[in-house]
Design goal:
mainly beta, 3 helices, 406 residues, 11-stranded parallel β-sheet, 37% strand
Length: 406
């Protein structure tokens, strides 16, 4: 950082305008600050632009009662962390919270900027919250390690209220999946905005997020996924349990890859504009519950392979629900049509208010749905939003800097 930013950060601290509790990070060498972290430490990053000198290693162990936190000193003026290595932060210790920061990949070679965060091994109870992650192949990566012959996977991870997108197609053959999780239990992916994740080389198939590798009890809820937002192209899928599958047993929890995910839930997500493939892909995903999602301008939902069984209730799906290669499903009160343009006449303007609200009012009761906008329980509705006339995803997109169609 230059001298002016040092002075500005110091002024903020002295004036009490910044959240400067704990250790104030003020230069590019984050490891200088983090290497001696202990439970309860709070590291606040002064406003400014940083270029990491290497992978920031979050090895220390917090506790459930006293996690270790890294966050912006002033959430209204986020610190921006530039990453030109394969990984920005590698989290291997449990009980960390990272929030209110911007991470931007700046690699000329798109094969290099892989992850803003890699969460591995013993890194249980991690919270990644309210960050903006731009220009990475797999901005958040979760996977296991083998230590003295035993497998360890990160469990109980919360990925919440982040913006994850790429400004241009990724010129790489590496996997392009903004949230890419292999193994682990009880991951929650909630209230994130995920968009524009095109893989421009190789098989050109990409996905917004998946949980696979014999993971279990994952929850994906209230996410807004727009496969094609500011640019188009490639084969972009929305949310997935199972992803493209895992073959190496060392990467699968329990060294079994027969089931990719067990007991997963997808509820009250909005998935838009995946015109070349499905909005939801279930690959050997056993005991899946999929309720109150709104999926528009995609091919619909695939339930694939013998290991997959899904209950689908109260969803609005433009396209179809298809059982493939032995995949099975059961339905309850879904609205599934090849075209829903008449129901959502202003869809191209990202306005999801239906032409006739009565068409989507009645849904089956008894499912644990939560309104996309408020997070409050909802019972009788179809789709992700209980009151579309009072909830605008258009306004949310304007906050993200989108140029709205006229």
């Amino acid at each position: 950082m230059n001298r002016i930013l040092y002075i500005f950060a110091a002024i903020l601290v002295l004036a009490g305008a910044a959240r400067a509790d704990g250790v104030l990070i003020m230069n590019d060498d984050f490891n200088r600050y983090l290497k001696d972290a202990k439970p309860g430490d709070v590291f606040t990053v002064a406003p400014g632009v940083y270029r990491l000198t290497g992978i920031a290693k979050l090895d220390a162990e917090g506790t459930r009662e006293a996690p270790i936190t890294i966050r912006s000193a002033d959430p209204n003026r986020k610190a921006t962390i530039m990453v030109d290595t394969s990984i920005g932060m590698r989290i291997s210790g449990p009980n960390w919270i990272i929030e209110d920061l911007d991470f931007i990949g700046i690699c000329d070679n798109h094969g290099q900027c892989e992850h803003a965060f890699q969460i591995i091994g013993h890194a249980d109870n991690i919270i990644i919250r309210n960050n903006r992650l731009i220009d990475f192949n797999a901005a958040i990566k979760g996977n296991g390690i083998i230590d003295e012959g035993r497998q360890y996977f990160p469990d109980r991870v919360l990925i919440e209220h982040n913006q994850i997108y790429n400004r241009t197609p990724r010129q790489t053959q590496n996997p392009v999946v903004p949230i890419d999780v292999v193994g682990g239990r009880f991951w929650t992916i909630r209230d994130n905005f995920i968009a524009d994740f095109q893989k421009a080389q190789g098989n050109q198939i990409s996905m917004a997020a998946f949980l696979k590798g014999n993971s279990d009890n994952g929850l994906m809820e209230r996410n807004l996924v727009i496969c094609e937002w500011q640019h188009k192209g490639g084969i972009r899928l929305g949310l997935s349990l199972g992803g493209g599958g895992t073959t190496n047993p060392d990467y699968c929890q329990g060294r079994s890859c027969t089931i990719e995910h067990y007991n997963g839930t997808l509820r009250n997500n909005i998935i838009l504009n995946c015109p070349n493939d499905v909005g939801v892909y279930l690959n050997n995903a056993a005991s899946t519950t999929m309720v109150n999602n709104t999926i528009l301008n995609t091919a619909g939902v695939d339930v694939r392979f013998n290991g997959s069984f899904a209950l689908l209730a109260n969803n609005i799906i433009e396209g179809r629900i298809l059982g493939r290669d032995g995949g099975r499903f059961r339905e309850d009160h879904n609205l599934v049509e090849r075209s829903l343009k008449d129901l959502f006449p202003q869809f191209k303007y990202f306005d999801l208010e239906p032409d006739d609200p009565e068409d989507i009012e009645e849904g089956a009761r008894g499912y644990n749905a939560v309104d996309f906008c408020t997070g409050e329980p909802m019972e009788k509705w179809q789709g992700a939003i209980a009151q579309p006339n009072k909830c605008s995803i258009r306004d949310r997109l304007i906050e993200y800097g989108a140029t709205m169609p006229k």
